Amino acid sequence: MGFRRGTLVTPTLPGAVSGGGTGSGNSGLRRFSGVFAPHKYGAVQSGDMQHRELGDTGLSVSEIGFGSWVVGTDWWGDRSREEDLAMVEAALDAGITFFDTGDVYGHGDSEEILGEALAEHREDVVVSTKVGYDFYNNPQAGHGELPKRIEPDWIETALDRSLDRLDFEYVDLLMLHNANVEEVDADVLETLDRLQESGRVEAVGWALGPSIGWLAEGEAAAEADVDALQTVFNLFEQEPGQHFLEQIDDHDASTSLLPRVPHSSGLLNEQVTPETELGEGDHRAHRPEEWYEAGWEKVEQLRFLETPDSTVGDGERTLAQASLQWLLYHDAVASVTPTFRSPADVEAWTAASEVPPLSDAEYERVQSLYRENFGIDRDDGMDALRTSVDGEDIEAAGIDAEPAAY
Going by C-beta distance under 8 Å and a sequence separation of 6 or more, which residues neighbour residue 291? Predict the structure, then answer.
């Protein structure tokens, strides 16, 4: 199911939100396992990778996905086109079947590279792209945000250009890229419905960012029952992800959550340590130093996750894998997209699909630490959530965060 035509309005802001997750790794999962996993509308061999359904579309996605913002750009490492292609190939070899890109990534380069890499696998993969930024008429200034265009004609034009670069006849999932709630009106909904009817788009969604927040937008997406909602969500940054999970449940929506930044910019995969020097162009450098200093203390309190509870199986997990399993504990999460920087990352983190899931006790122990801020009583420099409605959404949700103006 896509947007319910005409139902998207600025939602009535909800009351206070209780802590904790909205699902258990042991109940209600739209999950497929085994050597032969349902994929798209058939079955393909994908090794030990687990799959879940995207919304109620019938599309099956690998629970570890490939975020293609690392392809065709230099914000997460300087790689050649050949190296980018090799990383996508490594993802395919590891059983990844969900690939997420966007037209603005590398100003089209990401889509071109991904389309080339997946040309011989088109019917075996689920591909998502995003539209909403006008990079055609505006130069990129560092990591700054470009002007947005969400109007109907632009959405259709941008999609057609994306399809040309991908060399695809259709995309499985089209997401509006960082659209404000007031920008997604009845005309936009009508356009998305029409694109689905034309066969150029299979499912529709809303990608939130670039910074953390956007509660009004996520609430509207859940109320409209979009197929997918992408947001920053990880063990250290649980809001607004937990709030969106509750909204999906409250609206009885089939919306799937697609978490990004699952390793909290290098903390939970331990790629940013006290010895790490982040270069000027490294996208992780936008985090304040206080955030990393507090994060390193929190990491040490999570070491228990590396030895799984005996109730969920034998073996070990890396902290990076455990962080992905923490997200997959939630029923509404369909696929998690780590920021892969090398084929070695792909191999290590896709293996998260094979390690024991978190037990209820492990999950609750994490949540207990989170509720107490891991015992750290000082400012970490990351206490604001972005808002497009002057913070009314944050206040109504009862979340203890300062509004960051948009």
Answer: 380, 381, 382
| Per-position DSSP letters for 62-87, written without gaps between them | ESB-EEGGGSS-SBTB---HHHHHHH
Helix (H, G, I), strand (E, B) or coil at 331: coil
Lowest mean pLDDT: which of 12-16, 81-85, 117-121, 371-375? Answer: 12-16
DSSP secondary-structure letter at 198?
A: T
Tell me which residue of 386, 391, 324 sits closest to 353, measured CA to CA: 324
Looking up tokens 């490492």 gives 77
* Residue 371, helix vs strand vs coil: helix
Lowest mean pLDDT among 14-18, 137-141, 208-212, 348-352: 14-18
Query: How far lies 352's CA from each of 141, 269, 322, 355, in Å?
Result: 36, 12, 7, 5
Longest dimension (CA), the chain: 57
In whole angstroms, give the CA distance from residue 118 to residue 125.
8
CATH number of 31-405: 3.20.20.100
Nearest partner of 98 among 118, 84, 83, 81, judged by Cα: 118
Whole-Å CA distances, 60 to 141, 152, 173, 262, 405: 37, 29, 12, 21, 37
Strand partners, 288: none
Enumerate the domain spans of the chain.
31-405
> Which stretch of 12-26, 44-58, 126-140 has the lowest confidence by average pLDDT?
12-26
Question: Of 58, 67, 69, whose CA–CA distance to 32 is shortest?
Answer: 58
Per-residue model confidence (pLDDT) at position 236: 97
